[in-house]
Amino acid sequence: MRPHFLRYVCLCLATAAACRVLAGPLSSAARPNVLFIMADQHRHDCLGAAGNSLIRTPALDRLAADGALFTHAFVQAPVCVPSRASFFTGRYPHSHKNRVNYTPIAATERLMPALFQQAGYRTALIGKTHIYYDYPPTAEAARRTGFEIVDLHDGVGPTDKYSAYVAWRNANDPKASVTNYRAYAKNVEPGQNPFRSVISDPFTDTTWTGMRTRDHLNALSKSDQPFFIFSSFWKPHSPYEVPEPYDRMYDEVQIPLPRHTTLAEIERLPKPLQKLILRSKPEYETSAEELEWIYRSYYAAVSHVDREVGRIVGELEKLGIADNTIVVYSSDHGDQLLEHGLQGKNTFFESSVRVPFIVRYPKHFKPGRYDELIETIDLLPTLFEACEIPLPPGVQGRSFVPLVGTGDRAYEPRDAVFAENIIPEVITGGKMQMSYEPGRGVAGIRHPDAKMVRTDRWKFNYYADGEHELYDLKNDPDELINLAANPNHTAVIAEMKDRLLRWLITADETDQIAPRWLVP
Hints:
Layout: H1 3-23, E1 33-40, H2 58-66, E2 68-74, H3 80-89, H4 93-96, H5 112-118, E3 122-127, H6 139-144, E4 149-152, H7 164-172, H8 205-220, E5 227-236, H9 263-266, H10 271-278, H11 288-319, E6 325-331, H12 350-353, E7 354-360, E8 368-375, H13 379-387, H14 401-404, E9 417-422, H15 424-427, E10 436-437, E11 441-442, E12 449-454, E13 458-463, E14 468-472, H16 490-506, H17 509-512
Parallel strand pairs: 1-5, 1-6, 2-8, 3-4, 3-5
Antiparallel strand pairs: 2-7, 6-7, 9-12, 10-11, 12-13, 13-14
Helix pairs in contact: 2-11, 8-11
């Protein structure tokens, strides 16, 4: 018998044993429901419960008060598709190999909805999935990932012909034939929000996503089977269109704006970051007045999503199933909002990689604020443990049930979290496409890959061309001073490089090494 086959048999036996332990006595019908609500591009600090006294998020604040609020949750990639792939597999991007937006995930990867479906759950998708085995993003493609019921809306023009929201709006909104759902109103008076949406609140994709989620909650609550619903909002992702009356919600609020980043400061960043920030029209030159309206509109979009979250949670309570439903709220990444001169994400700054993360499971998870370091790949094993569903092989996250559960099992906190990214706008981007030169790479960058390791105090970012960043988060929480060239920190840099190396070597060990060698 061949050695690699023996290793495979050992892994299967070990996995089967673990599954018998995890599976427990619950039948499918007795398992809890799961409602996973995801916003797109929601910053960790734009939440009242997280300490932001200006933003209005009463529904999310109530959810946080009743559940576990994780203040230091980190995505494994600061961009939509790779991050969602990590949520749905419990695996790091270099393992599931979905590294750039609008690229398919490998057919060998097993995704969360399919695993829930296999365990006897009804499954539904409402809104943006942004993860497929093949492209384009059709309803049928979403079903192949494990969703039985699909109300798809990926939210960008090229995908509109596959969108259930667009079809619904065309049938219901009188303005559908004359204006795009992302368009700004043209009759805005001076001094008013220039990002006011041309369409009204009832016909926005935010309101539609909440409405359809409640519809499916009503239908699925009548089934004898438990359900897994993924309710996925486009907002507060840019562009910044926001409907009335939300466009006026923050008119009188003075939101602190980020300090202006100079071109000289940008040019001191690693080359992939420079190219990312300076691509197309340099956004670091955005005027203070325009930036103020961007922040007001972003906050308003969060508040709009918050209203729908409140309605959805209220529907759970109305149906009498709130106590037996695990509710999760998070985001696939944050938004720089002109911090460090950049709009959007794709960086390892806190505003991109750190996200809101709330999990509520009444009588099973202890409410409270948890400051431990959490990775978003930890969600899948946590849900599966709570639902007593066997874990598939290869999951790299760790369940935090021992941390938040009502039992007395010990929990070993993470001492570091990791993220990685192939800076997409350096190598892709339609009109921003940059040419490749043999031996020189793209725009002078031979390889745009980068890795991040973050501890309680330090953040270290390593780029494949050899550039790196080191930030002392205790003394420099805004990540303004790169200490990578400081000779006083050579020991810290060596330690962080060792952490990255150990992580890259061991992350896939459950896939490749016989279980008898694995250290618990």
